[in-house]
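Q&A log
Question type: sequence-to-structure
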Amino acid sequence: MRPFVSAFVVLLTTLTATAGLASEPSVRRLLARYNTIRPDDDQLAMYRLDWVASLAEAQDLALLENRPVCLVVIHARYGNITSGHC
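Response status: OK
Response body:
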């Protein structure tokens, strides 16, 4: 099978199994708990910022949009602010 077809079959199987489990009371309790501890939009606001990889690009965007620049320097071996891992 081609990779796309295989992935589609796996996705379809997973969705079918998940739909069957959704009627279970324990799954409903788990989803309710998830919804109570999930961060709301205000707590996730940082991830909606326009992150760019260079200071020059940030300065150009700030000038164009009349917004300030927030410079974040990651001094870690595996830090990656673009993906949120620092």
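Response note: The mean pLDDT is 77.
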